[in-house]
Amino acid sequence: MEVILLEKVENLGNLGDLVKVKPGYARNYLLPKGKAKRATPENIAEFEARRAELERLAAEALAAAQNRKAQLEGLEVTIPVKAGEEGRLFGSIGTADIAEAITKAGVEVKRQEVRMPEGPIRVIGEYEITLHLHSDVDAVVKVNVVNE
After folding, report:
1. Cα–Cα distance between 137 and 116 in angstroms, integer?
2. What are the phi and psi torsion angles at 117 (to 5°)?
3. Domains of the chain
4. Best-predicted range by mean pLDDT among 20-34, 68-82, 130-144?
5. For 36-88, how does the pLDDT look when each residue is reduced to its tens digit (9 = 90+)?
């Protein structure tokens, strides 16, 4: 199925690209999330008419993400938790906990923006957490997990 991308999609293409994707990916992800439209002649003409507006919106989103990155750079967040001997936590710290701690520190961050490829934190220590703010913008925040 051919679709027109309405925004930059990671590992697929940029705004305005005409790409061929599997029908299930288009039906279940790209179309419902508003990231793409079917590549019909009518939709292509409509997209070309709105191209400037969509490019302006994409540029504004990128600028907003870069401003948030500037606010987040150098930020250190401390999360106090209960831990047993040898520094093992009772429970774990996940993306929601980190997003909440960063938001309390003054910068709004969504849970979906927090990247933890190694999984949740289960031991006291200092961690560098990556925040995926935009497809082109990533920020790194230091998170200190300490015993209460």
Report:
1. 16
2. -65, -25
3. 2-67 (3.40.5.10), 73-147 (3.10.430.100)
4. 20-34
5. 999 999 999 998 888 889 889 889 999 999 999 999 888 999 999 999 888 89
